[in-house]
Amino acid sequence: MNPAGDEESRSRSGVRDGRHAVVVGGSLAGLLAAHVLAGHADRVTIVERDRFPDGTKPRPGVAQGRHPHVLLEGGQLALESLLPGFLAQLRAAGAPRVGLPSDMVLRQDERWFRRVPATTHMYTGSRAQLEELLRRRVLADPVIGVLEGTEAVGLAGDASRVRGVLLRDRSDGARGEPRTLAADLVVDASGSGTRAPQWLTAIGAQAPREETIDTGLAYASRVYRGKDGVLGGDTVGYYVYPTPAQVHGGGALPLEDGTHLVIVSGLRGDEPPTDDDAFASYARRLPHPPLHRWLDEAEPLSPAFGYRRTANVRRRYDLPGRRPAGFLATGDALCTFNPVYGQGMAVAAMSAAALRDALADPRRTPTTARVQRALLAASRQAWDISAGADRAMPGATGTAVAGRPVDRAVGWYLGRVQERYPSDPVVGRAFRAVLTLSAPVTALFAPPVARAVLFGAPLPAPAEPPAAPEEQGTAALP
Ligand SMILES: Cc1cc2nc3c(=O)[nH]c(=O)nc-3n(C[C@H](O)[C@H](O)[C@H](O)COP(=O)(O)OP(=O)(O)OC[C@H]3O[C@@H](n4cnc5c(N)ncnc54)[C@H](O)[C@@H]3O)c2cc1C
């Protein structure tokens, strides 16, 4: 690949035609990065620790797959631009497409949301189904090969250039010498548990500075089949957003087979339990009696699964440091978010689109550093949202918990946005677009939104959970 200096300026980020790119991790970020690199390299090899399951069974390498995975609009747009027709495939496979806020009963800070017509949609099907569809589509490309059941355990090369990965067959366990797979470019897409910082140190390079914010949020999720398949009437889902004032969150989201994934979350010291009875009574803390009745009558179809590693972690590979050419990080390996904001898959897709654009930019040589900066930029808005919200959560810890002075001014404005979000259609549309990563943060400062935020009083929120969507054109509440 391309060390800094002469070769860097001659090469195109290590993926000159005729070259070999290796992607560590065959999950969403890895598959999408491989798809993009296949347009620039002779050969792309995905190295995956797991063996891929038949169909849509969960697999050990993505333990989070048992929990809800919503695909936000920003991710949908990026996926569709990378793999045209993918969303139609997802719909054809039965993934529910849920309109927000119309299709759901939503609550935040003691306020129910008005169910005004949808301004955005999310897909709520299972993570395993989405990944399987993506895998089938990406691996159909003959340029892309996979080494399953193979673990990357280090990098080959030195501080100036990475020349491959060190691999071990999982069947060997810890025995046996690792073998080297030569590569011109290595992309780390091995997820939040990445060991790449240690691998870099081992070849004499510098590990990235890590920024962390950890609220101690823990999840528990369990599949249920409801008696009517819905939460009453035309409500397809239900969600309570955790906030500093109401730290206990959760809800129920529809899956592709007519079942629902019920999720509960709590902070450090009040983690949701995973034994059956305790899970059900924890879920009863969600403030919605119809949901309690629905749960009483629903049939549990799985045990409850817990998940506790939910810290926001950003690895600053974009900052100056002794880093080798030919090494990039993407997906959760670059930036992991508190999953409660539902952003990781969308950012994996947006990062792949950024990789595509950086490699194809005719105006700039796509050096390793430049491409890495583009990858980080693709996750910046999601980071600002989750880090900004989590800094305010009680008990948050980590190296990036302290905000900058400018965050306080923005925080004041955002506080007013949040007060108006559940009931004001103008503010709601803009905030949803930003939260779903389909509009930039500046959308919150557009004149009609700013007027409502700065000068308008919050509109009244419904006193009861609204049982049905409002008609188009409904003005204020009675
Ligand atoms: C509880 C929970 C809920 C979530 N909910 C949402 C949601 O609603 N919406 C959303 O968009 N995102 C959500 N996410 C985030 C989402 O799961 C990830 O952002 C997304 O999967 C992209 O991850 P990735 O491909 O970077 O890593 P992962 O999906 O974690 O995959 C990493 C891959 O690398 C492999 N691997 C790891 N180490 C090695 C190695 N040394 N050698 C070879 N292979 C290796 C693993 O087996 C795995 O296949 C959630 C996450 C969690 C934890």
From TrEMBL:
List, alphabetically, the InterPro entries matched: FAD-bd, FAD/NAD-bd_sf
GO MF: FAD binding
Q: Which residues form a coiled coil?
A: none
Which positions fall inside the FAD-binding domain? Answer: 21-362
Highest taxon of the source? Bacteria
What protein is this chain from?
Answer: FAD dependent oxidoreductase
Protein species of origin: Streptomyces glaucescens
